[in-house]
Structure formats: structure tokens, C-alpha cells
């Protein structure tokens, strides 16, 4: 791989010159100072339209085994590096989607390769333990070095899990267990509770609820799905719980230009939250917890103000509900702080914070009070994977060593400013540019144009994702520099010029 990379560098420097002389590039972004990521490629390189013939062939082959309706193209992970994803046809794309926002420091980062090739780590990769019963002897140290070093304020306990959905699913269970224990006080469960729970009946299976928000996404497993309200396709045909759903503020952007209107909208939503909590208590289905994303991601990159989150936190406290912040998509540094909720500047932002994606392992941090009181109440076979903690510890080293949170803030500013400029240039096409760090989005005039632009951008060597009804979301890795921002803006500007 190394030799092919060196020979490619020559060809790429030629090709880069071509990119910079492409039409339209001067409109938005001046040539940026090139602070190149050491192991990155120089730019996109496209050989076919995407999916190319090899990807199509593979889709046919896999189609005989699975539903491949969601497959974009097949990838060559050996050749992918840094900010670039290479597909099975040899097309190299600047990746602003990063496996649904889950690649923290780019493809094939040398630090992670080094960790893999260290013989001392071999057994961790070879032997996947049932962590809940037989953890490895270095587990307390490793989890302290990795996850606990980024614990949200006020939390010293963490439960690892495998993915985002199972993290949320178990976080919900922890909130229900906490709530019932709080109600019981010192007395344990009654005989009636012990027998009724086995046949899914109250009081053993109590009618408690979780309040969630319209447009929210917390996963696709059964419990999580009851709190997910972003797309019909996730929900159709699946039985669900009668749990309260509050409106999430529909704000106008840029936020600082619409503070009065947005404050009114947020006040309306908060009032509704309190009404729902009261209503569900009266219905006999009290709200044990409130779950919310700091920025609604799948639902369309919807933001809310610090004031909104602070008041919501107070409502949760006032009504005795646990407050669960789902940082599965926002966590890990992409907003310019390690956790998006850090932007709120609160002393006591949450009772539970769930994570996955960029943290490589799933799980949730929680306050001491939300520790399940007995073994096996929060449990499954793997409960995470210690090899992912090894990777995470190294990812955190890289983030600190390379000041990646500052870099994200810098690249994020350049990206958002570039989007503002494009929005001013193409008002009929683009609107509502918004973002925090590189966690940015922009709306396109309609869903068909959005979908077409995503495909056209891909053919020009930029891989992007959509979210909500008609938004494009930007989810680059933390090593996405200003140089990459300008590369993207130039290509995107050319595309938009064709749509005029
Ligand atoms: C905020 C949020 N919560 C939960 C999930 C579910 O995570 P997973 O797909 O790993 O189950 C996602 C996935 O996109 C998410 O964005």
C-alpha cells in the first residue's frame, strides 16, 4: 500500500492543479493554505460514475443474499485513507459523511495501525470477552484511560455497550429502574410485582414512559423506536408505546438574527413539554425520563438554544424525570467540544449521556443514582468490546496531541462561512445554513434537488449525506482541515452553478 501511495502522490500533485483551476472555484473560496494531514491523499480522483461497474456487480452478488437497497457503493478500505474513501472501482472521494458520522480520525490512521500491530494488544483483538462476567484484568485501567478521561461533568460511572441503539435501550431501562426504586423507597418489590412482571403486566411491568421530541432519532430497536420520530420508514408496522412526544423548536437561522422569534418558539415547546408530563401522569403513565439530542441529527440538523436546554433540564428536575442527552451523533468532538452539551455551559447538564459512533464503542455515562441496583438488570453477552476501548484511548491521544477540537472549530467556521456565502449566491437553491463546529447542514429547495445534488457531488468526488426532508448534512472526520473545506466548497460551487 505504501509504495502505491508514493507513486500516486506524483500523479496527484498534477491533478490537484487541475482542481484548483476548475471553473467557479474562485467565487467562494480563495486557495487555502494547505495544512495537509500527513497520511491523507491530495484530492479526489474519479474514474467512473458512482456506483461504477464493479460496485454494480457486487450489488448483484450481495442482492442474492440481502436487501441491498441502502447500499451506495462498495468500498476499498485498504486504499482509503485520511479524509478520502476509495470505492471498489478505484474512485477516491472526499468523505463528508464518514460512515454515518462514525470515523473519528479518518481512514487507516497510522496511530491505529501501530496499535493493531503491537503484539501486546493481540489477545485483546483475538478474545472477545463477555465483559459483564469475565472482564480482562486490564479493563479498569483501560476504561479509565479511555472513556473516563472524557466523562461528562458530574459523571464518574460508565456502562459500555455495542451500538447506539443498545446504549439508549439500556439507558432507558436504567431510568425506569431508578424511577421505580425512587417510588418504592426502602421497601423492595412486592410479590405481586415479582409475579406480574413475568407476564408483561403491571405493577411488575409498570406503565412508565419516556418523553421524546418530534424529529428526534434515538435508534431502531423496539424501545428506542418509541422515541424516534424522524422518518416513517423507521416506524411503519412496528408496535410501539403510548409515550408523550413534544414538539422540538423549529428555529429560524442564523440563530443570532432571530433571537426573539426563536425564543417564542422555544417557550411554546417548553410549555408543551410540561403539559405532556402532567397529562401523562394523570393518564397513569408517568414520565420517568426525557430523552433529547443536543442537535437533532437524522431529523434534519435542528438546533435549539442554550436557554432552551437549560429550561428543559430544570423541567426534568422539577418533575422528577431523569434527563438523558443522546450524544450518539454529536459526541466525540465534531461540534468543536468533545460533547455538544458542553456548549450549554451547565454545571449539571444531564443524568445520562449516551454515545457510540466516533467513540467507537457504544455506552452511556450516568450519575451514581442511576446505577442499577442488582447484577444482570443491565446486561448482555458482550456489553461492549475491550478492543474498541484500546482504539478509543489512541483516538483520544491523537485528538489531544493534534489539538483536533481547535482544528474542528477552525474548519467549522470556514465551512459555515462558505455555506453562508453560497446561500447568498444561490438564494433560490440554498437556505438555512447552520452548524456548530463541522457539524453543519444546509437546506436545498426541495427533496428531489437535494437527492440529485448528493449524487452529482459524489460523481465529482465529494461524498455527502442527507438528513431531514431536504437538508444536506456535513459530517467529516476530525482531521478535516480548512484546506479540505475549500476543496469541497469549490466543487460544490461548480455544481450549484450548473443548477442556476
Ligand atoms: C442520535 C442517535 N441516537 C442513536 C442512534 C442509533 O445508533 P446505532 O445506529 O448505532 O444503533 C443514532 C444513529 O444514527 C443517532 O444518530
Automatic annotation (TrEMBL):
Please give the family membership noted in the entry.
Belongs to the class-III pyridoxal-phosphate-dependent aminotransferase family.
Q: What is this protein called?
A: 4-aminobutyrate aminotransferase, mitochondrial
Alphabetized Pfam families for the sequence = Aminotran_3 (PF00202)
Q: What does this protein do?
A: Catalyzes the conversion of gamma-aminobutyrate and L-beta-aminoisobutyrate to succinate semialdehyde and methylmalonate semialdehyde, respectively. Can also convert delta-aminovalerate and beta-alanine.
Q: What is the lineage of its organism?
A: Eukaryota, Metazoa, Chordata, Craniata, Vertebrata
**What reaction is this protein's catalytic activity?**
(S)-3-amino-2-methylpropanoate + 2-oxoglutarate = 2-methyl-3-oxopropanoate + L-glutamate; 4-aminobutanoate + 2-oxoglutarate = succinate semialdehyde + L-glutamate
Give the top-rank taxon of the lineage listed in the UniProt record for this protein: Eukaryota
Q: Where are the transmembrane segments?
A: none
Q: Identify the EC number(s).
A: 2.6.1.19, 2.6.1.22
The alphabetized list of GO BP terms reads: gamma-aminobutyric acid catabolic process
Q: What's its top-level EC category?
A: transferase
Amino acid at each position: 500500500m505504501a509504495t502505491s501511495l508514493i507513486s500516486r502522490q506524483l500523479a496527484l500533485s498534477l491533478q490537484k492543479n487541475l482542481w484548483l483551476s476548475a471553473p467557479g472555484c474562485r467565487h467562494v473560496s480563495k486557495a487555502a493554505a494547505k495544512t495537509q494531514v500527513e497520511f491523507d491523499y491530495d484530492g479526489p480522483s474519479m474514474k467512473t460514475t458512482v456506483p461504477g461497474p464493479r460496485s454494480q456487480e457486487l450489488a448483484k452478488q450481495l442482492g442474492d443474499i440481502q436487501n441491498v437497497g441502502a447500499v451506495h457503493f462498495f468500498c476499498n478500505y485498504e486504499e482509503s485513507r485520511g479524509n478520502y474513501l476509495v470505492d471498489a472501482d478505484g474512485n477516491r472521494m472526499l468523505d463528508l459523511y464518514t460512515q454515518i458520522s462514525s470515523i473519528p480520525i479518518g481512514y487507516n490512521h497510522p496511530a491505529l495501525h501501530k496499535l493493531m500491530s503491537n503484539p501486546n494488544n493481540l489477545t485483546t483483538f483475538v478474545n472477545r470477552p463477555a465483559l459483564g462476567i469475565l472482564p480482562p484484568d486490564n479493563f479498569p485501567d483501560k476504561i479509565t484511560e479511555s472513556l473516563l478521561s472524557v466523562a461528562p461533568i458530574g459523571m464518574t460511572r460508565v456502562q459500555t455497550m455495542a451500538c447506539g441503539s443498545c446504549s439508549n435501550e439500556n439507558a432507558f431501562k436504567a431510568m425506569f429502574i431508578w424511577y421505580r426504586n425512587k417510588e418504592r423507597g426502602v421497601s423492595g418489590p412486592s410479590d405481586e410485582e415479582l409475579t406480574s412482571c413475568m407476564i408483561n403486566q403491571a405493577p411488575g411491568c409498570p406503565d412508565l414512559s419516556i418523553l421524546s421530541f418530534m424529529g428526534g432519532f434515538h435508534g431502531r430497536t423496539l424501545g428506542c423506536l418509541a422515541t424516534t420520530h424522524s422518518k416513517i420508514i423507521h416506524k411503519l408496522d412496528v408496535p410501539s408505546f403510548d409515550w408523550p412526544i413534544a414538539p422540538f423548536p423549529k428555529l429560524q437561522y442564523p440563530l443570532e438574527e432571530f433571537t426573539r422569534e426563536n425564543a417564542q418558539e422555544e417557550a411554546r415547546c417548553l410549555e408543551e413539554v410540561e403539559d405532556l408530563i402532567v397529562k401523562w401522569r394523570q393518564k397513569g403513565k408517568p414520565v420517568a425520563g426525557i430523552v433529547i439530542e443536543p442537535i437533532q441529527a437524522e431529523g434534519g440538523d435542528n438546533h435549539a438554544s442554550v436557554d432552551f436546554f437549560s429550561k428543559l433540564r430544570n423541567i426534568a428536575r422539577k418533575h422528577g424525570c431523569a434527563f438523558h442527552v443522546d450524544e450518539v451523533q454529536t459526541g466525540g468532538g465534531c461540534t468543536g467540544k468533545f460533547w455538544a452539551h458542553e456548549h450549554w455551559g451547565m454545571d449539571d447538564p444531564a443524568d445520562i449521556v449516551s454515545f457510540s459512533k466516533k467513540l467507537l464503542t457504544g455506552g452511556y455515562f450516568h450519575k451514581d443514582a442511576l446505577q442499577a441496583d442488582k447484577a444482570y438488570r443491565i446486561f448482555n453477552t458482550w456489553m461492549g468490546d475491550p478492543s474498541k476501548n484500546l482504539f478509543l484511548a489512541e483516538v483520544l491521544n491523537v485528538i489531544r496531541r493534534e489539538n483536533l477540537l481547535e482544528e474542528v472549530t477552525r474548519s467549522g467556521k470556514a465551512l459555515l462561512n462558505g455555506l453562508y456565502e453560497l446561500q447568498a449566491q444561490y438564494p433560490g437553491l440554498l437556505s438555512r445554513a447552520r452548524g456548530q463546529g463541522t457539524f453543519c447542514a444546509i437546506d436545498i429547495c426541495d427533496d428531489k434537488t437535494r437527492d440529485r445534488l448528493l449524487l452529482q457531488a459524489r460523481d465529482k468526488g465529494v461524498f455527502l449525506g442527507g438528513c431531514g426532508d431536504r437538508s444536506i448534512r456535513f459530517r467529516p472526520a476530525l482531521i478535516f482541515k480548512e484546506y479540505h473545506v475549500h476543496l469541497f466548497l469549490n466543487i460544490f460551487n461548480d455544481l450549484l452553478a450548473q443548477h442556476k
